[in-house]
Write the structure tokens for this entry.
Amino acid sequence: MLTRSFFSASPVGALAEMDRLFDSMVGARAPFWVGGNAAGARINFPALNVYEDETNVYAEAELPGLKLEDLDVSMTGSELTIRGKRQNNVPEGATSLRRERLTGEFERAIELPLDIDVANVSASLTNGVLLITLPKAKTAQPRKIQIRGAGQIS
Amino acid sequence: MNTGNELNKCCSNNVAVRRPDTARASSEWSYRPNVDIIDNDAAIEVHADLPGAAGESIEVAFEQGILSIEAQVPHRHNESWKRVVTEFGVGNFHRRFQIDANVDADRIAADYSDGVLKITLPKAREAQRRRIPVKA
């Protein structure tokens, strides 16, 4: 489940408001795991860590064993979808002594609470870590407002 | 505090759980990698998920029947990034197994790609299952 500790630790009111938005983004859409695990439980897969700075949102997932062709990352409006498949690596005739690594198909969709510059979303896969960089649309970026002194108003 | 220190007997039934870490920097924390272990008669294969590990940092050792895996995961986040959602922890990996099979230690091989470490532990010849032809 979602860990809230960072949010509650935030001393800034404006930031906390942003956090609530992100919180609802994850809760709003039920992610699912098609393949299932040994216990048959549905879990959020892949788990996501989300970061942001002034210009981008970054979504990160651990997907060891996947290659680029096993993955499909797409954006529809402000909804980010990650789909993929991890192959079973137990060859025919071999005995499985321990199985902890999940295999099968998965799909997870999250609704981003802000406008994304969809044309410039990029993703990389390095040592099994997927990093999706989602540039904020200009309207979603903080803008510095020039304040004119009273003397400047004609 | 280190979740990777306990010794796992190969083939027993306990399942590793990665515990999310939200409070600490990645380098201070250690996780048990999820593994598949396969016996294909000629060898025992260990497939361990080590996402984000630096290939050159991975250490695999086999001594007196104990297989140990250690891997360092370098920082990959810019200091200016603010955490918004944390569903998994990032840290180094460490796990040990007791391998009961008779392994030919000189021929152990390991390979890391796409975040997965594959260790092949060939069985000593006398431990391999051999098919004996029956003359009729």
User: Anything to note?
Assistant: Residues 1-6, 8-27 of chain B have pLDDT under 50 and may be disordered. Chain B touches chain A at residues 10-11, 15-16, 20, 22-23, 34-41, 44-45, 47, 49-55, 76-78, 80-88, 90, 114-116 (CB under 8 Å). DSSP finds no helices and ten strands in chain B.
